[in-house]
Amino acid sequence: MQVKNIPSTFTSLKEYMQSFTLPLIDETRADLASALEGMKHAPATQATSLKRLCSNQHIFSIAVKTADPNSPQRDQVYVPKDADMLMLTDGKPRHISELGRNGKPLLLGSVLKTDGEDGTVVRLSRRPDEGPLFAVFLINMTTYNRILNALDVQAASCRNTIIIEKVLNPKFGPKNNMLSSQTYLYSLDGDLAGLQKFELNDSQLEAVHDCVSAVQLDSTSVRLIWGPPGTGKTKTISALLWSMLVKKHRTLTCAPTNTAVVEVASRVLGLLENSSGGGSGGTSAL
């Protein structure tokens, strides 16, 4: 599979969505390969029963041996979860070289559900062999599936794509680029004078003022703050959120992980405490 570089610009929503599909598949493949390499340390358990549920598909109900709750190694016993990718083998392998010794392809499975009338239901890549089987956990597909669903062009066309379309087709002009360096430097004398305490560089300072000023316009707009790792994007976002609080704007902040949300919130709290002289004003503001 040849994965092309994702372009910097796109001609349509369809091209934008499809540009990320193959890289996502390749990333999933790489994570699966990494899981196979490290399967020695993966949770595993013995399959106690395997019952076919569909005559024309390899869909089975599987029951597995549960862990002893008092065992110190109970965390190493695999408990299937929805959207898990697992591997069934005749014994827990210690190295990837042990796989495929019988000349047959790997027996992979995808957990369809775990709480139905049929118990844990899996779709297998082929018909399983007779004899004892072990289920070895590889990866969970929940995040990959969500991203893939988000990249579905037909589904996306039914959603509100205004933000995406504005990013794909930016229109630079007087209405979208109203701030000059003199404007944002002058506005430091107003409500945002406290930004000087945060030691922002010129680029970060301009980004904050540009975003704050855009909020005050009647038209909707999109601002993209980008840069390599370590260039102060989180610091800039935190200063921007502080500025929104000072301007009494309510702001919805989203991040891809809970850790990222906590990081941004902690930074904003730190800025609030710094601007209030170390008091509790920052906590009460949030």
TrEMBL record:
Pfam families: AAA_11. Residues 199-273 form the DNA2/NAM7 helicase helicase domain. SUPFAM superfamilies: P-loop containing nucleoside triphosphate hydrolases (SSF52540). InterPro entries: DNA2/NAM7-like, DNA2/NAM7_AAA_11, P-loop_NTPase. One of its GO terms (molecular function) is helicase activity. This is DNA2/NAM7 helicase helicase domain-containing protein. It comes from Eleusine coracana subsp. coracana. The gene is ga02305.
